[in-house]
Specification:
Elements lengths: L3 E6 L2 E9 L10 E5 L2 H8 L3 E7 L2 E6 L5 H15 L7 E2 L5 H17 L1 H8 L2 E9 L2 E8 L7 H16 L5 E4 L19
Parallel strand pairs: 8-9
Antiparallel strand pairs: 1-2, 2-5, 3-4, 3-6, 4-5, 7-8
Helix pairs in contact: 1-2, 3-5
Length: 195
Amino acid sequence: MIPMHPQQMPGRPDRLRWVMSGDVLTGRGTGPLADVPAPLAALLADGTLAQITLDGEAVITCLGAERNWSEEGARVRSALYAALDDPAGWITVDGTSSCDDDEQLHGVAREVLAGEVGDFVRSHGGSIELVGVRDGIVTVRLGGACHGCPASWFTLHQRLERRLRQRHPGLREVRNAASPGGLFGRAPASHEGTS
């Protein structure tokens, strides 16, 4: 059985984010689904679920009207386990607008910054604020100990950008609003061989 656990989504009591371990969802796309395997389709048809969305390493389920997780959670979990056995049944909606994609990326960025990446930054006396998302570009502002720190490139590129890409393959780049030029998609220039 594939390890899976639900996470609540802040401000959205009708939604659960079911996080899968490993690369179970790799290659299945990201975003709203046009079609899902039969076990989940049955829950959409009977109104238990209103929407199902792929989110990198997770499936986001939105309950139907007048439903609650204490009564429906076990059914949804069972349907998800069964649906994972049908990789061809997961069909994402083609032509998702960039506005919708940016909204989804914004949500992913918020979650990543509230989690492990933000915890790392705060543990070193820094801060990282989400400034915005547009056209697949996430802009953040580093503060505290991170402002001007030589390791800030590593934090943005190797921690934040890598984690965002795992969860949202449509990410184009990560920028630091406080840096000259604002772009942190490249490693700092090497000064070897100069005097």
